[in-house]
């Protein structure tokens, strides 16, 4: 004869995992036992006060709704900022196209990026030679044989912008002693037939330009500037 003690010994205790598995397999359980919803109590995470399962579900839904609203507002703000950035880029491109010569192109570019895009430093270096004897050949024209071109090989070869902290040698080449305060930057490749270059937009803020940030609109500026400079550069 089986004793009560022996029966109890053969019964395995129900674990939390068993309950979870059962409820997952029977999602209609509380619909069939609706009275349980008001009887079950769940401690509130912040206050520790017990609330019914229904109240807890309503609270969770409200929190999820609030999070969704916040995310939507963030996306709307990002879209607004991108729209404003695109408008500024379009205006800058038109202004650059109206410049009469390279000197005007560079001064317009620098002034605009520092004023309207809040850059702290801007520099262009072209690994190319001017197309005409009387063409402005300032610091921007580093020359087609400049050894410093190797410092930007990755950017030039991949034709992809690079964000973050510049290497010390890159910083010195682009900004000289004025670059000591630069903490982050974006470097955009410039290119044409047989020539290349770099446009660097720099900030004293280490958080301004971070690796992985979206720079598609700024990358378009590199393409536009390359096209505008094309007539003033010796192509090979």
Entry keywords:
alpha+beta, 2 domains, 236 residues, four-stranded antiparallel beta sheet, 48% helix, Beta-Lactamase, single chain
Topology:
Blueprint lengths: L3 H7 L5 H10 L3 H4 L2 H5 L1 E3 L6 E3 H45 L4 H15 L4 E7 L25 H6 L3 E3 L3 H8 L8 E9 L2 E9 L12 H14 L7
Helix pairs in contact: 5-6, 5-9
Can you walk through the features of this model?
The chain is an alpha+beta fold and 236 residues long. It has 9 helices and 6 strands. It has 2 domains: 15-98, no CATH class; 99-232, GAF domain (Beta-Lactamase). The strands form 2 sheets. The protein has a 4-stranded antiparallel beta sheet, covered by helices on one side. Helix 5 packs antiparallel against helix 6 (102-116) and helix 5 (53-97) runs parallel beside helix 9. The longest helix is centred in the first third of the chain and has 45 residues, at 53-97. The chain starts with a helix and ends in a 7-residue tail after the last helix. 22% of the residues are buried.
Outline of the structure:
This protein has 236 residues and is of the alpha+beta class. The protein has helices at 4-10, 16-25, 29-32, 35-39, 53-97, 102-116, 153-158, 168-175, 216-229, and strands at residues 41-43, 50-52, 121-127, 162-164, 184-192, 195-203.
Percentage of β-strand residues: 5-15%
Q: Report how far the terminal alpha carbons are from each other.
A: 102 Å
Element-level helix/strand string: HHHHEEHHEHEHEEH
Summarize the amount of helix as a percent range.
Answer: 40-55%
Number of domains: 2
Structural class: alpha+beta
Largest sheet: 4 strands, antiparallel
| Assigned CATH superfamily of the largest domain | GAF domain
Q: What is the CATH architecture annotation of the largest domain? A: 2-Layer Sandwich
How would you state the average pLDDT, rounded? 81
Shape by Cα distribution: elongated
Determine the number of helices (DSSP H or I, runs of at least 4 residues).
Answer: 9
| Strand neighbour order, sheet with most strands | 3-6-5-4
Ranges where pLDDT stays below 50 over 5 or more residues in a row are: none
Radius of gyration: 32 Å
The CATH class label of the largest domain is Alpha Beta
């Amino acid at each position: 004869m089986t004793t009560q003690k022996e029966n109890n010994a053969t019964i395995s205790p129900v674990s939390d995992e068993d309950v979870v598995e059962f409820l997952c397999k029977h999602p209609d359980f509380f619909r069939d036992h609706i009275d349980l919803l008001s009887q079950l109590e769940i401690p509130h995470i912040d206050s520790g006060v017990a609330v019914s399962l229904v109240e807890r579900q309503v609270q969770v839904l409200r929190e999820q709704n609030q999070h969704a609203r916040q995310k939507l507002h963030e996306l709307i703000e990002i879209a607004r900022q991108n729209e404003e950035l695109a408008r500024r880029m379009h205006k800058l491109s038109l202004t650059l196209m109206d410049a009469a010569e390279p000197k005007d192109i560079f001064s317009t570019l620098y002034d605009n990026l520092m004023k309207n895009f809040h850059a702290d430093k801007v520099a262009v270096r072209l690994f190319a030679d001017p197309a005409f004897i009387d063409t402005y050949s300032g610091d921007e024209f580093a020359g087609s044989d400049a050894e410093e071109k190797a410092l930007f090989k990755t950017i030039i070869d991949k034709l992809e912008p690079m964000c973050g902290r510049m290497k010390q040698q890159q910083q010195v080449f682009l900004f000289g002693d004025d670059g000591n305060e630069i903490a982050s930057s974006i470097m955009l490749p410039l290119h044409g037939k047989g020539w290349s270059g770099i446009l660097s937009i720099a900030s004293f803020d280490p958080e301004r330009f971070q690796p992985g940030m979206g720079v598609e609109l700024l990358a378009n500026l590199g393409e536009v500037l390359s096209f505008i400079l094309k007539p003033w550069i010796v192509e090979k």
